[in-house]
């Protein structure tokens, strides 16, 4: 495996997800078929919600592959989905499906329904072929026969359990396990505590739902029922009862409520809103939701709508299942993609000796199962198995398309500070590693996201204060990784990034040292094989010389072994394992590995006619050696982290971390001294009487031959501080579990580990091209630009990229020969234009880099005789105020073929399925104040105050387009909701001076976007063009005259902000598109860009979406018959900074918002939370006037407050659109 060998003796059963559902297609253009891979899939919530979120979109086919390590998770998922496939008289009501899937106790009728469905599945699954030919198997397919067998056995357990439901043995066994589960929960979480992450389900109104959510979740945990108790006698639900045991307790909180978007339970929705609960909304005097019943009702209502949508969409869906380690599946798929072979010699999981062999009919040559994907979702696996491992393993499975996205999540703190969180993600070199792997974290570069972590921050802050922990907040962070070559948003073909072997070796060695540093952690995520997999992946991706890279890396490792600082001793002990891995993947073979000789010792394997470099060492460890510390591990709940040691005379013990563990008995085939000799394992339950522990790993044959007679092999536990504290007294300082001489009977030497046919295959084949060529020495003419990564020797970081372009045109060569002036001009975050000669007759050559770079600080090399130019450009930084990334927020690009727009970081959503907030009840919408104010990061708030204090500012605008855009967005958000004065849904985006109004924005509704913990404006936009304003359409002219008389909020913008709006509009339109692009689409025309143009009066969006609006979208005269045909529907969300780039909410801001958060005091997490009214200046945020006086009210509305007349004047451009005469003047 790619991670250290960890046996979790206590493995909680995660039957139900603990995060709200997301749409698996949220990054993809509507209407295009998609293949999706779910690693660590968990329950079915994401699949059901995806079907719901696709409603209203152009239809498409979805093929979803679900991978999870727990057989019982897949067994219950498939049975659940099969219930939803039943039709006509066999159709199962949604409340019955809810009970069977979520309730821990069922009444007699539900038990019989479960048994009937289990028997039905058993009847059509006598073989895998029978299953795939059945009505269920056509849509619900198994990727491999082992998963099929395991799941079918569990279905039989379900049916048998129903037969035993009345027995005391059945009931008592379940209650005993539930008591163990409660003890496990108490140990992990405390007696009465409830993790604050339950607030995710209530976002964006978590502050007002926390008490109700906590009570509802705790009730679910205690009773096993959600939303009422069925009448009659209850029995343990087999879907839970057969899965849990003393070593597999039910995970806490296992509440179905956490899977749904429960803001609808609190929010005041319009009468016609989707997903509106029917029960009465009960709110305390402080404004907090009090009804637990309404929370459960909201969840059940969503479940009903989601399952209904799934039933309608399933004819276009195929869902595949495999129970396997995610890395085993990914590397098997990589191998299968390249060769058509369904096995890459990986074990299915961390514990066990069965290899992963995919089904030949689906994954072999000619099979139609997907091997590359549009979306790969990895849940929060990176918390435990390492983000770098995921990018290396799953990254190559992404399709070569702009929208293709790999999602990672992390919830653990794992970093020393907020600023370090991003860099520490990939072993301290995130930007370098991602650049080498060709995968970019798009939201780091844009520093913009529609996903809100505001609620999580407000909930996490009290926990952090109470626990007095340092470092960043513990919040869920999602990262979208995309192919670097597409994130520029242009159609320019990118050349492969080149890197000198010595530079790549320097960068890789720095990452290797960080990996070994991470071995000091309680549960390490990397070992030598992890590093080599990364190294091979980089050598496949970059233009370099793999063999030279491998040689130089091993040279650097040898030199670092003697370093006085750093983990030199640890590195020295791992070197044999590292050199073996480097050789086995085909990078470089050290001479010492090739010194094996036949018949040079008494070892039987030395008589083989062909001795491989790597031989398998298998240990059979008797129960008396392994059971004592296993039993103790069960008592303490501590994981077991194994490693093997080989010690020869006069040397330190060589460590091998990639050890496969299993249980059973060893059998052999053939003679030890024959090439055909094989070691097999008859697997058994670990606690079965007489079951040995089997440990197998690969070691260099040359090392075993060195000292055959006295060399010793041992299996031990990782000797870190945590393991030593728990097991040190039992196992001693060496932490040895078992040891034997190589020639003893418990040790087996063979060519392959048990059950395998060869060494496991990591990734695809290495390139056979010549590799890196030093362009400074021999720059061969090339029609396309080339790019080389420059590595800092001291740190191993890539902070600069050199772009090389050969001047092949006669005009350019002549300009070089004439020594014409050459200047650089940055036209986008990715492109630096080389301008040769004097304008306007100059020749312009564009260099489009693979990642954002900055002209500032760049260097230029001009070879006038050799006719080439090089630019050494530093990487751009997203926090450089006013830098090249200032207007790079929500980019989009055009796909090939078809030139369909693809958004790069804007989540797609079906607006008509989202709940609609009522703007009449201002009290229930108070949450928006916090939500909207948080679009300004801590850094931006400081900049905002600085610019607002500047008396030289014109029209209240700052010099930063991004900051001005957020000011405008803030105005639109608060005015459309009416939370700071008057309310209107009509906005004019205009420039001061003579250019006038450029766009009209019509907000039809404010909707809750629970999947992104935020809200979204359902709106239409008219972006004026010269042709539109010169139209002969008299009714449209009348409409424009009418608009002048309406209550309209004017949003003032400058040139830069106006361009930013135009760049964003395609993403805002595409994310909610319910129509298809036609054959005459302007985007499809040759040479078209997206947006079509940012010039004044020129067309921005294609015309395909114009007029494609729901009926009665806006209630204005001339709208339906005339104005709407010029308008395109858009979805506008609050735009937050990315937590990857900077701090979103600072402590001072937390204190201002309230929510029970006090600075310097540990405040209760949930109960008694009150909203703190914001008594601050609307313009600058100060809480008092200069000199300490009270804030003064606006004399017209009597609501807006200011610290001074100057602040009121600066805010007027925003406030005038919302300021209405106060009711007090009419009493």
Automatic annotation (TrEMBL):
Keywords: Metal-binding, Zinc, Zinc-finger. The keyword Metal-binding applies. Residues 1177-1219 form the MYND-type domain. Coiled coil: none annotated. GO terms for cellular component: nucleus. GO terms for molecular function: DNA-binding transcription factor activity, RNA polymerase II-specific; zinc ion binding. It holds the Pfam family zf-MYND. This is MYND finger. It comes from Diplogelasinospora grovesii.
